[in-house]
Amino acid sequence: MKNLGRWSLAVAVLAISGWAWLRVQPDTAPAAISKPSATVDWPLLSSAGDRVTQAHHTDTGRALANAQANKKDWVAQFHAVGSNYFEFVTVAARAAYEGDGAAQYYIGRALTRCEETNALYRDADSADQAVSHLANFPAFLELERQELLNCGKFRSANPLKDLPERPGGYPADYWRSRAVDSRYPVALVAAALDSPDQHTPQVIAAALSTGNTDAMLLFGWSQATAAKATESVPIMAAAWVLAACRSGANCGPTNDVLPLGTCSAGIELGCTERYTAIDELAASLGSQDLDEANLLAQDIQRSMQYRDPARLMKYLPF
């Protein structure tokens, strides 16, 4: 999800005004929201750490990393179009159809986002009326209004019209499932976190071993926020977030992985402009735990250089 800063602001607005509405991240949505059911069948590591199996996983991690290096930067393009998801889907459609995992994944994200937006405002008489509840926050109102207008394009036109016809068309779940089949790292992590009974920890380790920083960030942040509801943020989860941030991930409020909906330091309407994942961790962890997480993050970064999933298994908190 893009423009997360405004969704952080939205949560604050809704909390203050009494609204119960909350837009949810596709990757961290509740079970009631539809998710892809595709599975990946990768061999398990033996308990003895069999060298042949380890070599297989090392090769897999390197192959995934090399494949990512040769792909067009659809992540950058996804962010560059702002809320014009229709334009992104139109441009990325052919590459996704031909097997580009990143294009597949972000088309799925774009379609999910607009399905959500159009459903949320389906009873509104106009875009202006739909966002009128944000009148006290004009900048946020305009962003929401523009997204509603952009997503409305899907109601009158089909950005996938040049692809071959298929039964059921090309919904968001189709592209997410294909991204899993393509072993796109972020898609693999998202699917494994959503359906742990269908994906082994080795699947996550192989995806993370590619060095894809969004996959690292999604994994760590999901583990941290899942535990935070009942206890303090796990040190290992925090380490993954720190390792991702320090490996080049965008850990600010505009990253589409981070649901920085509230600030642990207190809800402040302006905090979204500067708040980062590291700020959130610092507010959630004690100084000793944060120091330990920093040391673990350095270990993870060193291990990541080998592109070997087996080396990362000890950093998975399950």
- Based on DSSP secondary structure assignment, what is the total number of beta strands? 0
Beta-strand percentage range? under 5%
Q: Termini distance?
A: 27 Å
What is the N-to-C succession of helices and strands? HHHHHHHHHHHHHHHH
Compute the number of helices: 16
Classify the oligomer.
Answer: single chain
Unreliable stretches covering 5 or more consecutive residues:
1-58, 63-70, 261-270
**Rg calculated over all Cα atoms:** 20 Å
* Coarse shape: globular
Description of the structure:
The protein has 318 residues and is mostly helical. The protein has helices at 4-17, 51-69, 74-80, 85-97, 101-120, 127-130, 138-151, 153-156, 172-181, 185-194, 201-208, 213-228, 235-246, 277-284, 287-304, 309-312. The chain starts with a helix and ends in a 6-residue tail after the last helix. Residues 1-58, 63-70 and 261-270 have low confidence and may be disordered.
List the helices and strands and how they pair.
Layout: H1 4-17, H2 51-69, H3 74-80, H4 85-97, H5 101-120, H6 127-130, H7 138-151, H8 153-156, H9 172-181, H10 185-194, H11 201-208, H12 213-228, H13 235-246, H14 277-284, H15 287-304, H16 309-312
